[in-house]
Hints:
The structure holds two protein chains of two kinds. Chain A is mainly alpha-helical. Chain A has one domain (94-326): MetI-like fold, CATH 1.10.3720. Chain A has helices spanning 2-29, 45-54, 61-73, 87-122, 127-141, 144-162, 184-221, 225-232, 237-274, 280-289, 293-321, 323-326, and strands at residues 79-80, 85-86. Chain A has a two-stranded antiparallel ribbon. In chain A, helix 4 packs across helix 7, helix 6 (144-162) packs across helix 9 and helix 9 runs antiparallel to helix 11. The termini of chain A are close together. In chain A, 35% of the residues are buried. By secondary structure, chain B is of the alpha/beta class. Chain B has a domain at 8-95 and 230-332: Rossmann fold (3-Layer(aba) Sandwich). In chain B, helix 3 packs parallel to helix 6, helix 4 (132-145) crosses helix 6 (164-176) and helix 6 (164-176) packs parallel to helix 7 (194-211). Chain B starts with 7 loop residues before the first strand and ends with a helix.
Amino acid sequence: xTKYLARRLLGAIxxxxxxxxxxxxxVNLAPGxxxxxxxxxxxxxEVIEQxxxxxxxxxxxxxxxxxxxxxxxxxxxxxxxxxSRPVLAVLRDFVPNTLVLSAVALxxxxxxxxxxxxxxxxxxxxxxxxxxxxxxxxFYSMPSFWLALMLILTLSLFARNxxxxxxxxxxxxxxxxxxxxxSFGAQLRDRFMHLVLPTLSLALVLTAGIARxxxxxxxxxxxxxxxxxxxxxxxxERVVVFKHALRNALIPIITLVGLYIPVLFSGTVFIEYVFxxxxxxxxxxxxxxxxxxxxxxxxxxxxxxxxxVANLIADVLxxxxxxxxxxx
Amino acid sequence: MxxxxxxxxxxxxxxxxxxFTDQGVAKAVxxxxxxxxxxxxxxxxxxxxxxxxxxxxxxxxxxxxxxARVMEGSSVRLRGEELIGSGERRMRALRGNEISMIFxxxxxxxxxxxKIGGQxxxxxRLHRGMDRKAARAEAVRLLAEVGLSEPERRVDEYPHQxxxxxxxRVMIAMALSCEPSLLIADEPTTALDVTVQxxxxxxxxxxxxxxxxxxxxxTHDLGVVAEVCDRVVVMYAGQIVETGTVYDIFGEPAHPxxxxxxxSLPSVEDPGKRLDSIPGTVPNPIDWPTGxxxxxxxxxxTEGCELPQDLVELGEEGxxxxxxxAPSLVATGAAT
Lengths: 328, 336
């Protein structure tokens, strides 16, 4: 197990450096110039050159690459042009918010998807199965930004103003404006309520995908000989499904979750924008618009590194669930 | 049959298990009756698709329903208690406890993600109410009992770390864990190497003596039957075609199908002899032939064979054949 993990970790190092390289050149070769934003009419060429020199943009690209990579390896991600403070400080503000949102969405999607897929498989061809199939296909086919808008419309706006329901969910931000004046319990509730809509927008599409695969995986597993053995021992249906079948059926789903992580992160870019969630997704979007090179590079690098980490976690989970991997 | 004279442990009467499929109703088991007496080994022999496995799964109620359905009038009694329609809860209490089962494929019959010790302990904890520690100790003892070397270490291994023969030993340990009175063994040696087959059969025979359980052995291998069975039931096309002691079946087969099966075995007396085979294949269970179901493949078929055939008693107790000509065939010892 330790050896397996060590091998995965070592393999991740060149991958991360490769990602950093691609990110650097993709950002720097893109058209546009960060200084254009500061241009005023009548500004002369000298000032522009001075500004470019301040940003370090006067040097050739390969020099900048080596400097950037070297600095990054020591933990220095440079200085954000648009936020006028170190990139690391910007990351520190926004990264945790994105992690909370993505992690909650992932857990919700995984638990819900696995549960629904299992129910569908065990009750194959029943009304529950077909009903869930239709509902899940509906969510699977919807673009998440549209789903987000519809959720805002129904669960926030209509629920509050038209249907006058006792419960409605806030549609923007992470906390209410009066957050600081709330009691601790009320603060927790406030954070939870703000989390619901963005989480649902991100999670429902993934839930549908996971449930679909889980149904197929489960159907295959419950036909296996060892499931018949489990029944022949006199175990109840519940134990057979949730102990003997579930763990086997999860093996391909773990791979799938690893593959869904990038989908999840790209989803946060839209969703954070729609819900005014102060996270990396929204920050990187704004950084791209202002050609804030250091921040775009650091942000992209962060997302890429997270995908690598998530896949590492998937590999570890894989080994935990399937002993055949562990001993290879 | 002998149901009246000797107390039967398991008594199957007119078992009909049909599969309701899109193509039609497959009458996989179509009116099967037999007894298993306490402590004896009964073999059910037949080609693939004759209904022998479905028969054994019906006894344990392990067939998915639908598409399978055990038809009205079928009866499976364990020590007189009717099992058909006794409810899932009652069946669960019996499975793995009073009646346990081992399967054909040891490679795939153990759950790949759990340690074998845990899989054996599971039955003990369920039926015997043992705690984790006691069940584990008992699992080690059982592994030693089935002849696995280093049971202390093996108990923590996963199925993929064991060979096929070892896995079948684990299956046997699991099946015997609660000392069942009936063990159903469905082709227990088919997937194993010949040398391992012999070991497993010996082990089964030895444990049968030790535990005093009855064994219902499902197989297509007549060699296995000759080795371990007391009595034999020959099945063809969802029906029993012949019953008798192992000596009856091998010494004086009464049904032309049984004769065909025996003739397709190599013979010690005449090693140079070309093996006979039974022409044709098993008919489609959705559309069994009328009359004698073996008629189309039978070398002795004549006009009378178009009529439905009943099991004919052949003098001795428990000796029957589903062929109207069987009495004369046995009497004359007609060459095949």
